[in-house]
Amino acid sequence: MKRIVLTGFRGTGKTEIGRVLSSRLNAAFIDTDELIETRTGRSIPDIFHYEGEERFRSIEREVMASLPPKDVIISTGGGVVCDPKNMEHLRRGSSVVLLVADIDTIEKRLLKKPRPPLTGLPLHEEIAEMMDRRRQNYYAASDFCIDTTETSPEVAAEKIIALTHNGVSSQVQRNTALAFFKTGRLPPVALINLTEILTGPDRDPTTRIMGVAGYPCAHSRSPGLFNALFDYYQLNYHYTWFEDPELDEIMDVARAIDVKGLSVTIPFKRDVIKYLDEIDEHAAREIGAVNTVVFACGTAIGYNTDWLGVRKPLVSMKGAKAVLLGAGGVAAGAAYALTDLDMDVTILNRTPENAKKLAERFGCKWGSWDEIDRIKPELVVNATPLGMQPDTRSPLREDQLNENMTVFDLVYTPPVTPLIEAARAKGCRTISGIEMFIEQAREQFYLFFGIDVPAEKMRELTV
Ligand code: NAP
Fold first, then answer.
1. Which pTM was predicted?
2. Mean pLDDT within 266-272
3. Which residues pair with 263 in a beta bridge?
């Protein structure tokens, strides 16, 4: 039997439900908090009190790495989900079920079996604070979600058995989804795979679908990368192309088959916001564009990871004088990243009016293309499509480049663009758009699954 892992805040019923599941499925049951106490010979309050939370988390990590890979029901401690290494171990070959309950119910349950506080706050506030702090991690950890507020452990266990055996969508919903995918431009092999996963006689009903939403998006490399990551981490997911001119259609299908998440690309990064319950306060709201949607427990939350993909390769250039070419969707994330690194940024664009609008949002300077000669930047970031296959133009002339410049071309098809080629010839330091692609996808994977993929692994799996 595939192992079932129960996660959730204290008081959501993990141990009670785990025991019922264990007897209903005739499988072993492990409560990881009990296992920690058995292995150390100390109670968890004692470990916290005498050795501190750091030590407890380190023991917890060792225990997560040592759990049996199958035929077991595992109930985890409430904070386990916050450590990406734990998620890597727990998610491998498992169905992870997130248990949730409302704060009043959790408080009542916790009052019956007091545990040491995690903060100095009164219990009700502590629960609200900790649940809010960990929410993104809980959502990333969940394949399925069950609300235990008004449910007995027996009923919750039945629901979990149904979900982990039959999946989440009906035959009608899957047929409708397949009809939708047939209208996109999926490669023939991808469509054959998807047909098998959605409607095939030997299908695994618990395989979850996710993908990239855009129009066009058939060129996207995300399906290749994400499917390779699913194989590597043994996640029962399949990533595909949601290509349609109507975002309404895409969102209907995504909800009908209960997708775990979507990567969002042109032209929907702004439009998708109205379909979401929440957007990430730091980036998505300020940038005004969402490239990542995480669905969990009936909510859809939007994030922007593009800006992190621009920021990461440039951290060593804090405070540099930068020129950003372009003023579209990706340029907005880039402007956010560059100003976050305290750079002196000038935005240059084909339509200067658009450069002005973007510059005013982020406190940058702006101008028209040829002003680059006057500015003499240390860094140039290309956020236009110039140089993207089949276009062979470079956004800058050779005489506008010099060896003291760093050139970051966000275009990544081809990996070596005409701009990168020219910059290399001039002796500039160059950064390929692949670096942005890898970093933004790495952040997305963390938001979707709670796993922190090493950059080298991302590079190896980016085909
Ligand atoms: P967008 O919203 O359509 O914006 C395009 C920008 O480029 C606009 O400022 C536009 O100027 C300018 N532009 C378009 N055609 C031009 C031309 N022929 N000459 C000069 N300027 C031109 O596109 P986007 O979503 O920001 O994407 C931009 C590029 O980023 C994509 O083409 C893609 O290659 C790259 N990208 C890379 C990654 C990655 O992971 N590396 C991810 C996403 C996108 P106007 O204001 O005058 O229209």
1. 0.94
2. 94
3. 212, 292
